[in-house]
Amino acid sequence: MTRTRVHPEKRKRKKRRLGGNPGLKRCRHHGYSKILSLSHSCPNCTTGGLRKSRQPFAARWAWCAAFRRIKRVPTVVSNYQKDDAGDSTRPVGGCGRNCLKACCIPDAKLPLYAFKKVNGKDLSQRECGELPVAFLDSLLLGEWEDRMQRGLFRYDVTACETKVIPGEYGFVAQLNEGRHLKKRPTEFRVDKVLQPFDENKFNFTKVGQEEVLFQFEASDDGQVQFFPNAPVDVDNSPSFVAINVSPIEYGHVLLIPRIFDCLPQRIDRDSFLLALHMAVEADNPYFRLGYNSLGAFATINHLHFQAYYLALPFPIEKAPTKKIANLNGGVKISELLKYPVRGLVFEGGDTLEDLSNVVSDACICLQNNNIPFNVLISDCGKQVFLLPQCYAEKQALGEVNAELLDTQVNPAVWEISGHMVLKRKKDYDEASEGNAWRLLAEVSLSEERFQEVNDLIFEAIGSDELDDTVQCDKEVDAVNSSAHPTVVVAGSQECVVLQSRVLCIYLYMPLRIVHVEVDEITAHLSSVGDLGYHSA
Amino acid sequence: MDLRAAIQRSFDDRYTRHARNSLDELPDSFTITDPHIPGHPIVFASPGFLKLTGYARSEVLGQTAAVFQGPCTSRRSVMEIREAVREERNTQVVLLNYRRDGTPFWMLFGVCPVFGDGGAVVHFVAVQVPLHKKERSGVRDFGFGCCRKEVCSDSLSELGRVCSLEQVLERDVIELDREEPSEASDEEKRSAATAMDNIFSVLTHYSEATGRLVCRKRCSIPDVGLLSTSLIISLGRIKQSFVLTNPHLPDMPIVYVSDAFLKLTGYARNEVLGRNCRILGGTDTDTSTLYLIKESIKAEKPCTVRILNYRKDKSSFWNFLHISPVLDASGKVAYFVGVQVEDSNKNDDSHQCLSPEKRQFSVVGAVKVAVRSLSMTAGSSKS
């Protein structure tokens, strides 16, 4: 409407300015306008900007032949996960499209952030919150905003309406109608927490370099180091931080430990320590990392942690706790109270490694017992929440209330922590603390089962080198007398249930039935020992 | 130093000179903090507080409350305080703090906002009442008596502090952990309330004379466009030059400026707040660039330009300026952020690893996170 009021002469002048001034240009490759007065080039274009593209736009997605095989994809976390547009343009020699494959990686230059390994007690003296924005924080925010302005995300997450639900806990509800649009059935069985890596399915080695924000590793010389343009040393197993193109909050990234090792979604001590280091380095209490195991709403079986910014306390962080054990490394274990999901809280530790080892041992125990779980790393790595869950199992057994199922909310780590991502306007408008509570209560293990799982965990972290040093406040006989075999899903009784569940899952996924038998066998074989199923 | 001056001003602007003397006479342990100074530092510490913690006043001023916390401080209590500050309300928690020599002590911690005449929070007052152990505590009494002894031995070096901390961790903390004082007694709560009353009566009394009355209750509705304390604290963490402007107010005035901006342009904060960014322009500023900025603001699109700007003293500089809309939690444009980088000699930037563009983006990102998150609670009641 304002346009009509512009004087014709003025409009001409504007045209002259915009046309004649190299300041304002629209990148021809990327279909969004960007003012590039200084660089005269589009930051997204490897070919150097404003020259005409040699490739038609659709060909951008068609570089690596492997993508074309993916027909069913989970939540789209990478642009390279999209279905192929059916375009047959093939890459010219050396691929040239900046993927992470052998063709492009030798020439790749990615920022590298090397963190200082903190040892000893000075760690606990580090206090975050009121300090100036830390370097990793700036790096991550800067790179993320850059990708946002380049238009790499599927939607603008800052345009997604969000509110704090009134109530004691302050659950956060977000209306996100875009995230699930391309959601397909998850590509693997949901009843196995450990499954071998499958290079044919989507994994993070298939993302493009522009989706990678930086490399993240421990520094050699004990100092924080940053290299704006570091080569990618594949032999050195670098870990990457990449964007999630379907973000649920600002700064939503994925930490992919040792990306080229193609590890399946499975916690190990080193990877967990890396994630914990990232929380410490970001030094921002509102930057949290999360982990979903398979069966607890991880959608990609390639080891990854998620993280994003939300400058509010999560309800789970506000819930009261009761201390149940003090371990010798200084790690304190508490139980969550007055929260719909039962879980454990780990904090303290003389060194970061102490904390990390205890938590990862607990996770490994859950994995080996086929118990799905979620992990939240909060408060700059000072607190870790471990939440075993059984929603997928209940879902498969048809035990979840239809009303809750209708919301299609997948209770992964963020939902469990109190940040509910809702897909329907109706649910958003009607969001209440009661609704959130009801949903999360379905996720939680029963009190009885939770105690059994706890016993398993304590046995696991006690059986290690911590063995004789556990100063457990719990009654010792409670630990010993626990009938832990009943918790193990592979127990004979539950095995029947398990089989029928597999059937009902795959009934409405006819395409996948072919896979079931093969997967079943491999999974059964491998769930016992080390998976060791890495692709070359 | 800048911070010293800011701390001095923060107090003296509000209260007359006698306020300090009167506060010094109060026996209680308390601190006053200013959320408007980046980092939300302590601007006043009472003699009682210094005695309790063993720090010298010069060591405490400019610090955040975090330095008194340690490994066994409950993270939940810290979060409750952080939240109370964000929500501009008072709260009371039982908290484990550490003295200068590293010894921990339990206390009842009360915090209360001080409202200024415009309805904005100007300061926070924090009162600490040390908790006395019941029965078994005969050996270690964490009252004044014991710490006075420790203050006397003020020759403690930093090294000594670390050593004693380790000893404490091994010996005392485990014990402390076991017998967490669950509740403060009524007497202790009363004494916290009385202390708070006394402090506020002093503050109110001495602010009358400056004409900038403060009080314990919000006495007027906050001005339109006033930023919340929590947003100011969050933005204060960003060390680069940037401004926030509100497009919903007439002439799109500046509603927040960072310290680095003031340093870059030579203006004082009150000279730019409420004004339009036009004040940076001058005779040789390219009108076509201004037009470009206007267009992208109208289209609610980000833009980057290089523009000739003027400081307060009329000297000019090339400003590598990035402007971006900032949406609130309802998904609507709430502010525009303008990030200035002085585009002078390249060698100035070389020691900083991030390129100027990325540094600008990181400011935009931090502002977006702060504005979005902090409008989630207020969102429904505002529009």
TrEMBL record, chain A:
GO cellular component: cytoplasm
Sequence ranges assigned to domain GDPGP1-like N-terminal in this UniProt record: 136-308
Key words, A-Z: Cytoplasm, Guanine-nucleotide releasing factor, Hydrolase, Nucleotide-binding, Nucleotidyltransferase, Transferase
Major place of residence: cytoplasm
Taxonomic superkingdom: Eukaryota
One GO term of the biological process aspect: glucose metabolic process
A Gene Ontology molecular function term of the record: nucleotide binding
Biased composition (Basic residues): 1-18
Protein location: Cytoplasm
Bilayer-spanning residue ranges: none
Keyword Protein biosynthesis in record: no
Name by which UniProt lists this protein: GDP-L-galactose phosphorylase 1
UniProtKB/TrEMBL annotation, chain B:
Protein name: PAS domain-containing protein
GO annotation terms (biological process): response to blue light
Domain of life: Eukaryota
GO MF, one example: photoreceptor activity
Cellular component per GO, a single term: nucleus
This protein's record includes keyword Flavoprotein: yes
Keyword tags: Chromophore, Flavoprotein, FMN, Photoreceptor protein, Receptor, Sensory transduction
Species whose genome carries this gene: Sphenostylis stenocarpa
Pfam families tied to this protein: PAS_9 (PF13426)
Residues annotated as domain PAS: 15-88, 254-276
Gene3D superfamilies xref list: PAS domain
The keyword Nuclease belongs to this UniProt entry's keyword annotation: no
